[in-house]
Structure prediction request, 319 residues.
Amino acid sequence: MLASQDQHNQEPHNQEPPKRRFLGRGDIDVSFEFFPPKTDAMEDTLWRSIRRLEPLRPKYVSVTYGAGGSTRERTHATVGRMLRETTLKPAAHLTCVSATKEEIDEVIRDYWDLGVRQIVALRGDPPGGVGACYEPTSGGYANAADLTAGIKKIAPFEISVGCYPEKHPESKSVEADVDMLKAKIDAGATGAITQFFFDNEVYFRYLDRVRAAGIDIPIVPGLIPIHNFKQVSSFAERSGASVPDWIGHRFEGLDEDQETRHLVAAAVAAEQVLGLVDQGITEFHFYTLNRADLVYAICYLLGLRPAKAFTEAKVETAT
Ligand SMILES: Cc1cc2nc3c(=O)[nH]c(=O)nc-3n(C[C@H](O)[C@H](O)[C@H](O)COP(=O)(O)OP(=O)(O)OC[C@H]3O[C@@H](n4cnc5c(N)ncnc54)[C@H](O)[C@@H]3O)c2cc1C
Prediction:
């Protein structure tokens, strides 16, 4: 999988794209991001989605950590249940917000004891919400690089971090943003997941920039299927991701037409992911928003198929 990304490094993307579609298992790696549920009904939706996506054997699944550690227990419970009841490898998100180093270190030790071996290390957003000024907690980790170093001191976790093809909204410049990614790698991160984007050129330009800066870890595209255009546009606004006009046009007038909206969302997602595959990208992180249908279909397009063990178990239960 990395070979293809490396291949992309060597070949500028404006050359004739290699036609490498429908590669399937062994060539394509996917990971799925979920958020911890707040209610029983949300828990039900989450677990139906997990069960639906599990047979596709993702490389790992990640569980987010709410602003200010507000989901600490729920993130822990979801990750624990994944370990106990599924074949999945969970990666727990962790942020620096509103907690001292001691408190965060305790969470890190708990994860290690539980059997978690991968963490997505993040600074987190200011408690006042995106746009407010971020102030590190007194006695806490200052940012994601500091947190990454702290995690590494406790146990040999595999650490992924966030990165921003359109730069983090708080970054003074694109260069400062790339420097921050470098600092996270120097602290021990071995993979980066991008903020979502809709224009693949944005990702490729970023990839060229970070490779030119000597960064060679996988920069895995984070993709968000558009179940609800208004909701995703609002996420994008808050996170500094641009939404091209043409995407808006595609969903125009479909607010009350769920069926067509769903088909359009599938087409938009397919176009984006296959565009990336055509340029040699073979690893993808999906922001599932706890919904399986579109992500399952996209993975199917990528050539992934449910593992036999799961389909046979289903037949056995049915007979
Ligand atoms: C894949 C992914 C998953 C996420 N999951 C979660 C989650 O589970 N929970 C959650 O609350 N949020 C999550 N977020 C959002 C994230 O917490 C926010 O984007 C946050 O504002 C920045 O986090 P970071 O880890 O990228 O921060 P950092 O990399 O620490 O910093 C972000 C930016 O701030 C600036 N900065 C910070 N420190 C310095 C410094 N010392 N000097 C100069 N500039 C500095 C830099 O410009 C830098 O690029 C996620 C984001 C991504 C991309």
The longest strand covers residues 29-34. The domain at 24-128+136-318 is CATH 3.20.20.220 (TIM Barrel).
